[in-house]
């Protein structure tokens, strides 16, 4: 287990580099990431290449026993390049260019930028091909940050038409698939297809879904320019990209074949404020939401089905959320332990020193702008010492939670309620699992699902016949399956099929959806389940059971008495269908019953903010709250870090299982 840091030598005088690097060694740093925003420093004039400064920095780091991860600098094309090729710039739906002066202002489909990317990546790769201190590369930086996966320029229009021609072959097939008779949207040729630019009313949902798919694939195709050139030069390098948390437009699964390693950038106090509809609690403002961060850990681990890295770990206060409170004392250490517990092999803090210039001056580093230690430095030092003694295998999860960007996009295109939000709905079930200390893999529905004792499929909106057959086979062999509201509602083109929801899943669910409704707070939102009364939110379905047993029913309103939750025996397993978005207590009850049927051990229900995670025979107890917590581990547990008192914003580790843990 290792700790790293992001460093920008171009921001500091050479006289300071040696001291910075020596202090990195003292803090237990093993990896240093550099170069992702340095194009104008590398090539100040067209064709005038200066990599000597970066070579010197790499040598200095290597001489001190650390390893370097270099980045392709394409997230920030220099001004001279924009002046030479203005078509590189992205455009908004209304045609407004996203001008130079920030970052991520280029279009993935610009032929000129693809050529320039090939050139700069090739040049850098060849320069460092034989450098023993460079062990890997990060491509670009945070694809999709600032809502930049989708562009609406003329290059994208041409590329979209070619993408559609390859997918549908002829325009009549497209018209049939999309359903363009509605609102007189029938097309005569692919040349008539434009990106979904600014319009008077909402766009056709099938057109939007295909544009979202096209845009995501454009980023994957662009990324391949980097990976192909790097591998051609030195196949021993590992290649990765740093993704972001709860990102809606960038489909990480498309990148997995081209990347050796998945990494992501974790900023818990920012994410709790700007990436979910609920207001952050005081503790979340100091340490974040463990389930919000944890679900992203498990998603990026599941995307490649192997350990991942945190390529940017929040080091202290940050500049970009609405508010920038100081993290709780010890939170930066807590986040490193939490990541490792969920399967991270390396945690890289962003950044080494607070920058004195530009847009990120209010973003903390491990050290202040004068070079003195900041609060995160001591946490990183302590985490490096504690984690450096662990040699861990992968996380072994009993439960898979299915996640798919197509379902995210389709439900967001037609949310049917202002507070429908895919991530939040999915996290309600994830939170119920993690509050019981159950290990979770977040995986794509097309991944291998064998070996899981239970599967949860939240809002499996678009369901193919092949996926339905796969799920049926898994359940028949003994897997317990829970399917949630809005599943099987649409076909692969984002159209209603000629059968009732849950469509291809109806056979194993043993029920169909008679009616559905989105429900504001002013209307009745209660159900019975297992003899108890519970509340739900946002979305509800009235189920018409066939073979399924009714285990939950609506109370009040026009749906009074209708089935809301069903269970159906299928072979050696069962399929539960939850036709409402449950509040936390009901989600816990439904998930607990699923775990019982699957024979999966679990703890008592822990309070929000306190979590236990197991990895390779070791258990972490993490406390994201401002109050100490006392725990009772299994009798045979052996403490590695800390003891049975988990301090505020603290973490402890023992050798032993998580399921026998309890709170005092």
From TrEMBL:
Record-annotated Beta-galactosidase trimerisation domain positions: 397-600
Domain Beta-galactosidase C-terminal: 610-654
Domain of life: Archaea
Reaction(s) this enzyme catalyzes, per UniProt: Hydrolysis of terminal non-reducing beta-D-galactose residues in beta-D-galactosides
GO biological-process terms attached to the record: galactose metabolic process
PANTHER family: BETA-GALACTOSIDASE GANA (PTHR36447), BETA-GALACTOSIDASE YESZ (PTHR36447:SF2)
The protein's name: beta-galactosidase
Native organism: Haloarcula marismortui ATCC 33800
């Amino acid at each position: 287990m290792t700790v790293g840091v992001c460093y920008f030598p171009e921001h500091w005088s050479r006289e300071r580099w040696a001291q910075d690097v020596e202090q990195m060694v003292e803090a237990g740093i093993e990896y240093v990431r550099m170069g992702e925003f340095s194009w104008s420093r590398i090539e100040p004039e067209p064709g005038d290449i200066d990599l000597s400064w970066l070579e010197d920095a790499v040598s200095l780091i290597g001489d001190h026993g650390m390893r370097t991860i270099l980045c392709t600098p394409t997230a920030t094309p220099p001004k001279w390049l924009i002046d030479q090729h203005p078509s590189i710039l992205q455009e908004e739906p209304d045609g407004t260019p996203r001008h130079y002066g920030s970052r991520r202002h280029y279009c993935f489909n610009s032929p000129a930028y693809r050529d320039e990317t090939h050139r700069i990546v090739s040049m850098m790769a060849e320069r460092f091909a034989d450098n023993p201190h460079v062990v890997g590369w990060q491509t670009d930086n945070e694809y999709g940050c600032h809502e930049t996966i989708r562009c609406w320029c003329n290059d994208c229009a041409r590329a979209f038409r070619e993408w559609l021609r390859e997918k549908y072959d002829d325009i009549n097939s497209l018209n049939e698939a999309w359903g363009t008779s509605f609102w007189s949207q029938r097309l005569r040729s692919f040349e008539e297809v434009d990106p979904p630019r600014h319009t008077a009313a909402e766009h056709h949902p099938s057109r939007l879904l295909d544009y979202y798919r096209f845009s995501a694939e454009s980023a994957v195709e662009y990324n391949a320019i980097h990976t192909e050139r790097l591998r051609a030069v030195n196949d021993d390098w590992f290649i990765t990209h740093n993704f972001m948390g709860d990102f809606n437009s960038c489909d990480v699964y498309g990148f997995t074949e081209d990347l050796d390693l998945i990494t992501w950038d974790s900023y818990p106090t920012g994410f709790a404020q700007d990436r979910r509809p609920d207001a952050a609690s005081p503790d979340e403002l100091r340490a974040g939401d463990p389930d919000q961060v944890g679900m992203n850990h498990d998603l990026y681990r599941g995307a490649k089905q192997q350990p991942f890295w945190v390529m940017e770990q929040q080091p202290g206060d940050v500049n970009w959320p609405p508010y920038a409170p100081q993290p709780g004392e010890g939170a930066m250490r807590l986040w490193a332990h939490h990541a490792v517990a969920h399967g991270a092999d390396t945690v890289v803090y962003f950044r080494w020193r607070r920058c004195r210039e530009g847009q990120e001056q209010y973003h903390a580093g491990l050290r202040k702008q004068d070079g003195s230690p900041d609060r995160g430095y001591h946490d990183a030092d302590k985490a490096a010492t504690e984690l450096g003694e662990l040699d861990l295998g992968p996380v072994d999860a009993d439960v898979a939670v299915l996640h798919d960007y197509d379902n995210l996009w389709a439900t967001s295109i037609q949310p049917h309620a202002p507070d429908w939000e895919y991530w939040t709905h999915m996290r309600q079930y994830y939170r119920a699992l993690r509050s019981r200390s159950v290990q979770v893999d977040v995986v794509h529905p097309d991944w291998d699902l064998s070996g899981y004792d239970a599967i949860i499929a939240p809002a499996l909106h678009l369901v193919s016949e092949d996926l339905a057959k796969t799920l049926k086979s898994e359940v028949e062999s003994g897997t317990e399956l829970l399917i949630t509201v809005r599943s099987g509602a649409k076909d692969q083109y984002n159209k209603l099929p000629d059968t009732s929801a849950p469509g291809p899943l109806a056979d194993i669910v043993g029920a169909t959806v008679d009616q559905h409704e989105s429900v504001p707070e002013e209307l009745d939102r209660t159900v019975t389940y297992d003899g108890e009364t519970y509340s739900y939110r946002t979305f509800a379905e009235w189920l018409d059971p066939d073979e399924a047993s009714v285990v939950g029913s609506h109370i009040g309103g026009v749906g009074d008495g209708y089935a809301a939750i069903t269970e159906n025996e299928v072979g050696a397993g069962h399929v539960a269908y939850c036709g409402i978005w449950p509040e936390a207590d009901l989600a816990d009850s439904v998930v607990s019953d699923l775990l019982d049927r699957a024979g999966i051990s679990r703890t008592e229900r822990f309070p929000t903010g306190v979590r236990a995670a197991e990895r390779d025979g070791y258990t972490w107890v993490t406390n994201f709250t401002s109050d100490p917590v006392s725990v009772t581990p299994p009798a045979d547990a052996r403490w590695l870090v800390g003891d049975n008192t988990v301090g505020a914003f603290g973490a402890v580790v023992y050798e032993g299982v998580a399921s026998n843990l309890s709170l005092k």
